[in-house]
């Protein structure tokens, strides 16, 4: 079966996205589904392809926060049916030690499957209208498009009564921030959490920390982001505050038990470590692009630091939990979203990069 549909193609790191016709030469394999995309969140990981020229293959259809409706399945092995509404998340092999230990974000094949188009034996390949080959699926999805062929294990079935076009960011950005707080930290009532960086991931962490009953401090340099964090229950603190670690310690009664850095700033990471109470835990979610020199004393007294990928989440468990919190009014992620037609993807990118919009969602 050949399927023709519209998709946003990035042809080089310094070119704009172009919305054009692409061709899918085959239907889903036994363990795959074909999804009509209702909405796809734009994540900074998508845009990072521009800054990592040569690492991810181009031209490509990006997008890895998709959600939509199943229109075809490869067979009964998928466990899904035509008409099911699904949220799509990252890809994983399902059989390595990490996957079997309920840690799919640390899959042995994570990089090849998500960044470099793995699953070569059955990956559906795109071509453009002229027959030119496009890179294999991005994060198992390539959801900046009208349709996506996806491994069924990437898909989480959701209630069809929900606004599926808004749910895609639960598959990555919001999953990462909320999962770090709820899973990696296990924060609860009486805990103290500092969140550095109030973008999509940081604000999801703030909402999750508030929902868990923790006292939360949000650090950012943009007043409008701090206002959002305060609306979601955090104590706002400007990143330029004098003695930032001391300020956080005062606001958290002697130091935060947990801190989450979303900025990859070496200075803020050291400030976060200094703001921790003894045995405190700092989680990093942003990719570091430079060396991270730690100041003397920052890891004393049982403090520890770890990298957190995809919120340490099993998407099939955390996404329904976040939807339940949202329905209860305790995780208002929809307030961070602005929707754009897929044709306006370059405007959405500009708004995302400038910080004007927290979470763009593209509607094919």
TrEMBL record:
Gene Ontology MF annotations: metal ion binding; oxidoreductase activity
Segments forming domain Enoyl reductase (ER): 11-362
InterPro entries: ADH-like_C (IPR013149), ADH-like_N (IPR013154), ER (IPR020843), GroES-like_sf (IPR011032), NAD(P)-bd_dom_sf (IPR036291)
Keywords of this entry: Metal-binding, Oxidoreductase, Zinc
Obligatory cofactor(s): Zn(2+)
PANTHER family listed in its UniProt record: NAD-DEPENDENT ALCOHOL DEHYDROGENASE, S-NITROSOMYCOTHIOL REDUCTASE MSCR
Family named by the database record: Belongs to the zinc-containing alcohol dehydrogenase family.
Name of this chain's protein: Alcohol dehydrogenase
């Amino acid at each position: 079966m050949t399927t023709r549909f519209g998709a946003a193609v990035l042809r080089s790191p310094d070119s704009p996205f172009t919305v054009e016709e692409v061709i899918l030469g085959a239907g889903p394999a036994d363990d795959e589904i074909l999804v009509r995309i209702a909405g796809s969140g734009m994540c900074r990981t998508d845009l990072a392809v521009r800054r990592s020229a040569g690492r991810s293959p181009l031209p490509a259809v990006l997008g890895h926060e998709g959600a939509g409706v199943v229109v075809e399945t490869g067979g009964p092995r998928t466990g899904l049916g035509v008409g099911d509404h699904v949220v799509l998340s990252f890809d994983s092999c399902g059989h390595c030690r990490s996957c079997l230990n309920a840690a799919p974000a640390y899959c042995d094949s994570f990089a090849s499957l998500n960044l470099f188009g793995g699953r070569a034996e059955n990956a559906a390949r795109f071509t453009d209208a002229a027959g030119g080959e496009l890179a294999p699926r991005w994060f198992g999805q390539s959801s900046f498009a009208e349709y996506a062929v996806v491994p069924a294990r990437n898909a989480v079935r959701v209630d069809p009564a929900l606004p599926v076009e808004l749910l895609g960011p639960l598959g990555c950005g919001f999953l990462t921030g909320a999962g770090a707080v709820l899973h990696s930290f296990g924060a609860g009532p009486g805990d103290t959490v500092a969140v550095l960086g109030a973008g999509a991931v940081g604000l999801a962490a703030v909402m999750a920390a508030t929902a868990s009953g923790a006292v939360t401090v949000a650090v950012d340099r943009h007043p409008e982001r701090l206002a959002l964090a305060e609306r979601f229950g955090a104590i706002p603190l400007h990143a330029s505050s004098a003695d930032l670690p001391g300020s956080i310690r005062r606001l958290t009664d002697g130091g935060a038990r947990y801190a989450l850095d979303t900025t990859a700033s070496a200075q803020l990471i050291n400030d976060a470590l200094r703001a921790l109470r003894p045995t405190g835990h700092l989680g990093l979610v942003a990719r570091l692009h430079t060396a991270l020199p730690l100041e003397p004393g920052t890891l004393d007294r049982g403090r520890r630091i770890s990298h957190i990928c995809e919120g340490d989440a099993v998407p099939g468990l955390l996404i329904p939990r976040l939807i339940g919190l949202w329905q209860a009014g305790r995780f208002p992620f929809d307030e961070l979203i602005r929707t754009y037609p897929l044709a306006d993807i370059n405007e959405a990118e500009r708004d995302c990069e400038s910080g004007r919009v927290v979470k763009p969602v593209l509607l094919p």
